[in-house]
Predict the structure.
Amino acid sequence: MSAERAGYLRYLRQDKLPHLWCGGCSHGVVVGAVARALAGLGIAPEQTVVSTGIGCFGKADDYFATHALHGTHGRALAFASGVKAVKPELTVIALMGDGDAATIGGNHLIHAARRNMDITAIVSNNNNYGMTGGQCSATTPAGKRTTTSPYGSPEPDFDLCELVRGAGGGFVARSTPFHVKALERLIREALEYRGFSFVEVLSCCPTYYGRYNREGDAVAMLQAIKQRALAADKYAQLSPEERAAHIPVGLLYRQERVDFNTCYGTVRRKAQSGGDEDGERAEVSR
Amino acid sequence: MPGEVKFLSGNEACAEGAFYAGARFYAGYPITPSSEIAQLASERLPALDGCYIQMEDEIASMAAIIGASCCGVKSFTATSGPGFSLMQENLGVAVMGEVPCVVVNVQRSGPSTGLATNVAQADIMQSRWGTHGDHAMIALTPSSVQECYELTIRAFNLSERYRTPVIVLTDKTLAQMREKVTLFAPGEVDLAERARPTGSPAEYLSYRPGPDGIPPMAFFGEPHLLRVTSSTHNEAGFTDNDPDNAARLLRRLYDKIEGNACDIARIKTYHMEDAETACVSFGLTARAAHYAMSRLRKEGLKVGLVKLLTMWPFPEKKLQEAVAGCRSILVPEMNLGQMVREVERVCRDKAVHSYTKSDGENIMPGEILQAWREII
């Protein structure tokens, strides 16, 4: 066993492997990338909290030999925010599917980004609800078939990276399960970033989404994802017509912003010194 | 040595009780008539090296206090009516995941937006059964501003002792009215802390119960890895749908509350030693009932009052003992008849009379007096 392999395996509960996901599912690739990124940064497992919601990827916490908080559908970021607010020194990771992050939990996503909680949110986006049998989500592209859009979805989908950027997220990246090394590197950068960091993974669900849309097996789906993904700088040079066939990947946006805990430190200082620098304090609660 | 005497509202007293109990994290969403608790938390917690965070809704608020509590920080929130409905989802996480936390629910008239924002006592059953599935719940019912203070402290102690969420059920009138409150001096009241792991990190299992049925709790960031889960789980904190495991877990979660009702559930009695007719009441209504009782006593009538300080677990045995010598019982409440069902259930050999009021106005002493006279 290589030193690198031994290094990241200590972040995983090997007694829980093999994982429960279907053959060809991308979620396991994402779990591996997160474990390698943690190992690469040497973050102690006991200093790490993995927060998950519900759905196929909501099972991801089972495989991490870290602290874990497995809550309710869509709320992983809200649970994680409470953790980070009181323990800024911990590395807090929210692992979510597209149902969790973009659909039922969309409100928590935009507010965690706006609030700039120092949390790394990783969304394994497979464009449908796998756990419940392949229903459509807020990232199912218009016209695509799922078990609840048998005639093709009548709704447009979210561009999650644009959404998070618009909400104020300072670190926004996208990758794919094909580009495993790039994915690991982006997650590593996201973990190092101080503030809300967001990594979308364009995942595939051959069992449901791929089957209903006749996209072939897992290999065919991965090939299609590979062909569609284009480095953000190259994507930027394309004409609008050419862009239709592609989706930008890599680090899409990075802006340094002061995170919530740092801002709250200022609040504490004011509260403990009895008011603002100019001695004023709003008398609101009496 | 007693502490400071202050003139506080019920909401302020709940917040003071929380700070005294050691609460250092509040996550919430503003809603009348509970917002003064949030306002006071936002002012005081940063001064105590704690944290106040205003979340995007009550679902997130409940989630955030659970997350903070998993780090070992005593955490609370406050809400009312529609906000309490939204909290039910993650209140279930605190039950299943055994995460100590306190929710102050300032009852207002419903359903839905209802009479925004008039008084009611109509969340009794929601407190008990609001989150889905089999579970037990602790809910405390203060009837004065002093009790708002004391029972909020007790709520934290019970939540730490039993590793469970605790609800403090007040109401709009109690929350907004002001009374003299004697605060406790530091160290005057024992503060409970959740049981902690004693073995090595390698052998720690997040949900292996101690001899009292309650699992010691590690904190996030410690060498003992803590797994908190909303799913039916085994002692290691992993999903386990085995029927025997599921039955065992649900029974343990239920029994740790209901099996300790003698410790948790409290009542206060007034003139019950020779009472032939009792009034069983709680919260604001108990104040009006106390006045009515005093009037009837002056007339020489053998009446008494049982005031519930704990709504859930319902103080069955203590109530049965208190009313053993009574012929009939009056149950006044500001709803269409919720607690009366419990009184009927546990006092089957008594004539139980319900007096209800559900119009957004306070129950007045005169109303209880009249209702009481009719059954004497």
